[in-house]
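Lecture 7 notes: from sequence to structure.

We start with a single chain of 463 residues. Read the sequence below before looking at the structure.
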Amino acid sequence: MKQKLIIALMLSVILIMVPITPVAAATYMPPELLEEIKGFISERYVDEITVEELTGITPEEIFAHLDPHSMYYSADVFEKYLERIFGEYAGIGAYVEEREGKIYITQPIEGSPSFKAGLKAGDEIIHVNDVKVKGMTLDEAVTLIRGPEGTKVTIGVMREGASETIRYTMTREHITLKTVSYEIMDDIGYLKITEFNESTYDETLEALAVFKSKKIDRLIIDVRDNPGGMLDSVVDIARLLVESGPILHVEYRDYAMMYQSFATNFTYKEVVVLANEGSASASEILAAAIQDSGAGVVIGQTTYGKGSVQRIYFLDEYGGFKLTEARYLSPNKTVIDGVGVEPNYEVARFPAHVDIGNIVTRRATKDIYQGIRGPEVLGIQQRLQGLGYSISDSRGVFKQGTMEALMAFAKDNGLEEPTHLTVALQEKIYEVFVETLYSQENDQQLSFALDYLRGKVDLAEAK
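Now the structure, written as tokens:
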């Protein structure tokens, strides 16, 4: 009997990154099902492609002919992908990523077990329940971390500057990914959106209702490092912020659509979108809609530049896939794919004297004395200079100038006067540097946005 392709439309998604890595091993699939998938792709894919061009005997080989955002997922991996889209799972509540064979915490979710236990962004996961994770794929590590609600898991992490592994034992909980946080900064509403999933619109409504009750009429929307998400979610949110008119244009292979706002009673005098090179897809749609409509301005750096729309499909026991079916343009029909959204005002996130891209990453493993030279000394010097301490010594050389900076640092932080660089002092410098660097006070983009909305920026000089 001919295999029937069971395929159900799930949702349109515009996400630049996925939380798992597709399996490298080839997936067996009945030939009849593969042929139906080939025909489906040739009908729906954003660019013209024939069935004959989709060569291969596995779904992985077939999707290798398409753009990087079209992707097949085996059943277990597809389940984890949907958890990210719909925002619910059982675990410790932390975003993780894989870099060069190592697994890192990128962000604990506020209120989650990982957040309450004290895990921090940048922590390298060394082991999960004493199983070493080095060399694992992200999917393998996530599988170890997640588990049934109410069960315990012990995570061992190495923190920058720490001399030994730190162990945290947590009880897994049902996690609903909260994507929106907000606060009122004097007279301005600040709204942070980490991604656009099924709950983001309702969370945004809740925040805006609070702002309305406080008569807030100026708004900052922070989508820095937001990778995107669901198309419907960002369109609905844009309709709350853009007066009547187009929000975006979506161009399929054979036809085009325009999404628009119908709002006439607008709440906000002006909106600022904070964006950077990590803002992608749905984030770019929101930034471009506000910019082109004149509802506000974009401050920060040029965004990532992903202007395509994927749709997710379900293949019953064979997992699922996402397929690029359209490209989108801004309300003014400006191309975003491969270009990004340019800010109205380009502002760096960190102060000029903090060269964050070239800071040496080291662990504190031993005490350091005057006369020593090397990368461990340079890493400390860079952080002390980033904190505002002047150092006259040569780069990477521990002499009197570095010692004077250390003594000033110790005094400012209520520490005993040092005679050398102890492991504990190195760890303290790392800790204070990270806290200071990412503090609101040192966020130049946010400071510029606040000053802009308060009329304190000289627009003639600003770029």
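The radius of gyration is 25 Å. Keep this in mind for problem set 3.
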